[in-house]
Amino acid sequence: GSKISAVPYIIWILLFTIIPFILVIYYAFSDNATGRFTLDNIANSSAYLPVLIKSLCLAFVATLICLLIAYPLAYIMSRKSAAVQRAFMMLVMLPMWMNFLLRTYAWMTLLEDNGIINNILAFFGLPAAKLINTSGAVILGMVYNYLSFMIMPIYTVIEKTDHSLLEAAADLGASPVQSFLRVTLPYSLPGVLEGITMVFVPAVTTFVISQLMGGGKVPLIGDIIQNQFGKSSDWHFGSTLSLLVMVVVLAFMGGLQRIDKEEEPQKEVRIL
Hints:
Strand content: under 5%
Number of strands: 0
Radius of gyration: 23 Å
Number of helices: 12
Structural class: mainly alpha
């Protein structure tokens, strides 16, 4: 019975994970003209390492900003009553119910040279600001679109933390700061790491945000890959770049999993 029930999952993984991955490897190590095995695509991909590094840097900054915003918000949410928590959850999830492109276009309307923000500045006699088509605009787009992916796992873990541990820490003389550092923070680490993964990975590979908010002036590795599979029609080189990004992302996720295992909190409260 269990083997039969697993068949749909096996078929799904085979069709949408294993076979596509094999195709990516095949295209990455084959020539575009002859289809023969070659390492030229790997060698040529080194020219785009600066773009990959820039993509990683912008994704890191966006992830850090999301974490700095999400953790305090998730902590405050977990301390409120059930009704207030539901209201907060609604506000967090509401933007996600709107189309991704619509949310991004809304920010473009705000940031454009003749957009709402610059019109307000002009009304008060202030000089116009260059907001759109910048790295800052791309980071803003990442933060806005992926912030809820950071809030949700952190809130879920903090909300499920055993409150008796906090009470025990208080009984042992711990201050609120000590209780947070020794109980809440260690136990929330799995949610933090999950949130970092859910924000960093799509931020590295995004191309819609960089194209719209960056106006083509802030190309990221996702833009290059999308162009290879689109305008250039060079699936072989596009697969090579995709494989390169995949290796970097897997290494990043492996590092996070290792941190998660090493930092797993002990099921006891220790107060100095």
